[in-house]
């Protein structure tokens, strides 16, 4: 058969020009893809996923399904127009929406930029990738931009999220800072969102005791948002990690804050809501944690505070467990038998140490000024008069009772 008449099984292309995939360097420019310090060039999969972080919004379930079926390089080829969407069963309208953003894609430049800030880009399959993020299924991040020196996978193995209101009260900030410090001293990593309010208090509490903390941002890891937390974010990157699904330079918006909450919930072993109003965005993190079968916890606040109403409703509905300090949290999310909270009891009073018979005599002594004779005390205590008299003198030595003629009475404390 003539070769020109054979039927090709390859998917049709929209152009007969040289096949230059968007996740590969243009011809003659291969050096541009290499890291500034040398080393191997990024793989096509990594470049494609880096491009997608600028192309899509976090948690895009449609893109998640496409990636699972076709892989990142093929999806980017389709979006870029190198491959036709038809043979792959992709919605042309959806592809067109993605294609409108293609002009801004330069994954090589993004990788170089994050590396210049001391960061990196990790993808599923990397040794540093936290496998618990796979619980998000189609909403799993296509990759994560990470800034800092620690391993995200290792830090996330023993981590707890502390979230809450941005406009928190002094009570909420104090509790968040105390719990974060206690968790860090127990070897737990504190994860939060880097925002004002409870997030800031949680990060600072962990940093204050030399602990590790992870900030999951709703913007690029090369940015400082909110601006008032610039120094805090710098300290987090030095003493912990900054993490984002968004490419370098991308600004936050209201929806990105909500979407990043699912990463906080999936990354950690449990989420603690310290303070939140009924419509607080922090409650979305708790709901996602509950849906992912993570421990969800709440800290009670003043019943007169609107900023505690959301937490109280969450606890009352059974959606969260009440916790008061790090020991409660560690017992829930820690290893069975290894992170038990200490038994709680009130202070031990001297009266608690009395022998049972002595305590019965003390209880029988009336509080009136006249007191009572021994025979009456014996009837009240159910003991013999001789035993009661012996115990009364023991109580005198301890300063509990005194003799008043033939009667005995309690010593009045001044």
UniProtKB/TrEMBL annotation:
In terms of Pfam families, this protein maps to:
DNA_processg_A
Q: Biased-composition ranges for Low complexity?
A: 1-14
Mind telling me which Gene3D superfamilies this protein's record contains?
A: 3.40.50.450, Winged helix-like DNA-binding domain superfamily/Winged helix DNA-binding domain
Domain called Smf/DprA SLOG: residue spans: 121-332
Q: Where is the composition biased (Basic and acidic residues)?
A: 15-26
Q: Positions of the region Disordered?
A: 1-45
Instruction: Write down the superkingdom of origin.
Output: Bacteria
UniProt lists the family membership as follows: Belongs to the DprA/Smf family.
Q: What is this protein called?
A: DNA-processing protein DprA
Provide the species name: Kitasatospora arboriphila
Instruction: Identify the gene encoding this protein.
Output: dprA
